[in-house]
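tool_log.txt
---
The assistant was asked to compare two proteins side by side. It first ran the structure predictor on the initial sequence, then on the second. Raw inputs and outputs are pasted verbatim so the downstream comparison step can read them without reformatting.
(1)
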Amino acid sequence: MTAVVMAKNSNWDPAVSKLISSLKEAESLSDAQEIEFLRSLLESKELNALVNVHSKVAKVGKDDRLAPLLSTSMQVLFEVLELLSTRCHLSPVCKEAFHLFQNPHFQSLLCAHDAIAQKDFYPHLPEIPMEMDEDEETIKIVQLVKSNEPLVGTKLLSFIDFLCNRSSYC
């Protein structure tokens, strides 16, 4: 059956094909229901499509043409601004470049570029001091990661607004 399914679609990933063929060897080691579940999972078009997408993304990720040349562009910008500050009076082009580079939008663009180039995508918590006095209270640092659902306070305020709209007391 595996060969029939794989013959229908010539885009199967070789790693998935090896996994499917190795299931035959594992049939004696596991429950038949588990083997059938794994076989149906590995033969699914969805998994094969995900593996193909992963392979293509991994191939593009290895392409050096898309890699940033520099991950410290903000530092370079500050050095350029320092050099231009002494030469602004010499040329209107220098003055215009100096004002352009001082623009907060331009600096934010370079800051975003640096964060992506350094693969620094998540916010960081402050460092926890290793040396603590015995008399000090301990502090727990909690990080909230918001999902698609609103926080409880948001739901409560929405409910209060709903009640106020229905009555004349608010």
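(2)
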Amino acid sequence: MTGVYELLCRCVQVLSDMTILQRRIPPSFRDPASAPLRKLSVDLIKTYKHINEVYYTKKKRRAQQVPPEDSSTKKERKIYNDGFDDDNYDYIVKNGEKWLDRYEIDSLIGKGSFGQVVKAYDHHEQEWVAIKIIKNKKAFLNQAQIELRLLELMNKHDTEMKYYIVHLKRHFMFRNHLCLVFELLSYNLYDLLRNTNFRGVSLNLTRKFAQQLCTALLFLATPELSIIHCDLKPENILLCNPKRSAIKIVDFGSSCQLGQRIYQYIQSRFYRSPEVLLGMPYDLAIDMWSLGCILVEMHTGEPLFSGSNEVDQMNKIVEVLGVPPSHMLDAAPKARKYFDKLSDGLWTVKKNKDVKKEYKPPTGGPGGRRAGEPGHAPCDYLKFKDLILRMLDYDPKSRITPFYALQHNFFKKTTDEGTNTSSSTSTSPAMDHSHSTSTTSSVSSSGKAALQGRGRVTTRTTWSNTRVKARTRTSWSSTT
């Protein structure tokens, strides 16, 4: 009995010592049962069972969230950017979503090759903004960073926002997308033309647009900037207010600085300059060519040169302005794409079997729909025509610059017509293109006939329908 009693006493003592030792273990000390080594050895089967339970639970939850698909059309589903992007690297926009506890997404405004633009409400500043969401891909991010740098540079030199360039408020990264926050503007000039049923706006309103755009190009041409927009077109010119004539240039996604040209294939085709079509070096003058095309289109309602491809585009230009100067074609890498060189050293347009009829540009003049209205006298059209021909000079070295364009007589006259776009856009005459003595020699004989009041093109309705389908509209605006 004595031996049994002593054994019990020893057991009690051991248990007491173990209790004391457990009290000395710090709270942060890991339970040996949860150690990875134990889970992958002694408790291996138990670990496998737990993994299976978690896996099948998640699989069942996903199956409940995704609607069933027909087995014949079922495709492998891929997840992009943790499910935030689609297969085109665009962010999947959800209306009502709030970003950074600040921006509440309202709606999608537009899409383009760069990404998307959404309308959002900034709860910090209590204002509506437009957010440009760049695609989640390195190439687009790199180009957007160039755009960002140029926008910040322009903002730095336009602190008073008086040069008709869209204002960048700030930028941020959100779920691997670079986001640029801009002021929210109204609809673009192409939308304005569409609201006129492509009949164009008054000459006075065209003048207001022209003066602002020349001022913007003069700003971009300052030595500190030397920025080439590279994609000036009606879609990239937005009204600040739908009932006023104030405008701003947007979308510097293709822009570059002089001496830092990146791309050779630039500018939308209708507004592409001859030097770009010919593969020649380009500078800020390409934007002036685009502006000349835009101004004619704003007044007539129709594109001045609406080529279906580059060859057709050049042919349409030649029909109006004649063959480019020999010194340009001799130095142009792509001259033989459009022209043949004769034995006497002169150039002639290549014969194109696909071209079946002569191009007829938009025509008209003082006898048009606005005949007798203030600001539409023959002298007004002569001034307009002269400015346009100087903007459409083949040679970029002699093409009119923004500074001298602003000194042109077309801007000297002030009119009594208001700036309300809703009342200024209902009707307009086509442009009178009769020539001044200083520019007649540069225009072909067929172009002269077309420009001297032969009547408007009779296919406007067909063109308008085609154009709406052909163009990919991208806007940073909202009409609401």
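---
observation on (2): Residues 72 and 229 are 49 Å apart (CA to CA). The chain has a mean pLDDT of 82.
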